[in-house]
Known about the structure:
4 strands
Amino acid sequence: MVxxxxxxxxxxxxxxRTTQSDPAILDLMKKENSWVVVNEEGERFTRYEAFLQVVxxxxxxxxLYRFFACTxxxxxxxxxxxxxxxxxxxxxxxxxxLILLPSKRPVMTFKVASFTIGTFIxxxxxxWNLTTxxxxxxxxxxxxxxxxxxxxxxxxxxxxxHPKTDTVWLEIPIELEDGSEWELLTQxxxxxxxKNMDFVKSIPSEHWRKFYLNITDRLDxxxxxxxxLCRKWNNLHEGFVPNKKIKEDGDQCF
Length: 254
């Protein structure tokens, strides 16, 4: 139990000593039938109060001190400790399977396999991220495919050599059959103007912002998207308002 407390609750600087090394501590242990905890000020604690001191000075569980120190929990904890202290032989039989075994000799096959897999994953991540830095013009199709399979394709160029500074502003001007001009994304007649925030406000989410950003690298995406917006506009206005369809002239509608 002491080793479990040392591993999970006590700081590395905590000393664990046998009671026989200090006659005063040994007498106190026999008197209280309990373990003994001594803090930095030399104060001695036994039974449940000793457990509270361990929790209070634990790097991980000190936030639970107030809970364990409240009167109802402290009363139950004290009663439980007294019961355990009077039934040590029974508790020993119940916990006899918790024997601390010495570390086994590592299996070389597993050791080599884990090292190889770890090295392969590290190399894969490095190779993949080198391909994302555009100025290097580096290509590694195999490692790129592996990262796709494992869903490890996070990009360094998000921050390297500096955070992305690119932005996007899209406008899709159209001319209707009645001769009026509109901007298709914002459905505004303010053509070729960047004086307002209509386009920014029209972006519904981060995924759409990313899509608009990708259009700047893939013009074919832009043409497909513009075609969709044209069809949507015409389907919405067909049969209701005359001469409000997009004029089919050259590249006006795809």
